[in-house]
Amino acid sequence: MSSTFEAIANIIAETCDIPRDSITPDSHAINDLGIDSLDFLDIAFAIDKAFGIKLPLEQWTQEVSDGKATTDQYFVLKNLAARIDELVAAKGA
Amino acid sequence: MRLEYFQLIDRIVDLNLADRRIRCEATVPSASTVFEGHFPGFPLMPGVLLIEAMAQTSGWLISAMNRFERMPFLASVKEAKLRTFVLPGHVLAIESKLVHEGSGYAVLDAKVRSSDKQVCDATITLRVMEFPNAELAGEMRKLAARVGLTPEMALNG
pTM higher than 0.90 for the full model? Predict the structure, then answer.
């Protein structure tokens, strides 16, 4: 399991009071864990702080609205972890 | 402070875009129908309105940072502490500092002081969105001018 996934699972568990053991890499933040957009702002804030990045939430939302991406690409946690790793790598490049 | 219009801020005293902080002033009116109910015989500025004053101050900072091209909306209030009573006629100094600018949201630490005494403080989260219509964008610019936020201040801070 990636350390990034572990970090975001812990953030979600703490922020949304969701049992940690119910959060898996295949969990969809919205569909499976029931996280709403306001709670996701808190999660995004915690992720931004923890990783020193800025999750491009508006861009992702627009891509989903435009049909250019699915919510799975950004909100299934293993995919979210991969996106975060990409942002961290881009920051260090 | 125009309670009847829900306009809690009288004037912007200091705006520093480099430090991402703002300071506003507001005088609680000496009379208002609000005080007839809150409370009869013991008029107090409602705590929720003090929180709104912090939210509006925070909003002016975000509006200036976005050069009035986006609109902040209150999304959440955390760790709000109302530390002392505020009475009609009190002058308030309201400060807010940006903690984090995220994608489509901003987190700010805000506080209110009166007569050098800490009155209240909170962490404010604002959603930052496109204006829903041109009318609101225009009205916000007019309101900004009323509280002393000029286009030059928004550009230069």
Answer: yes
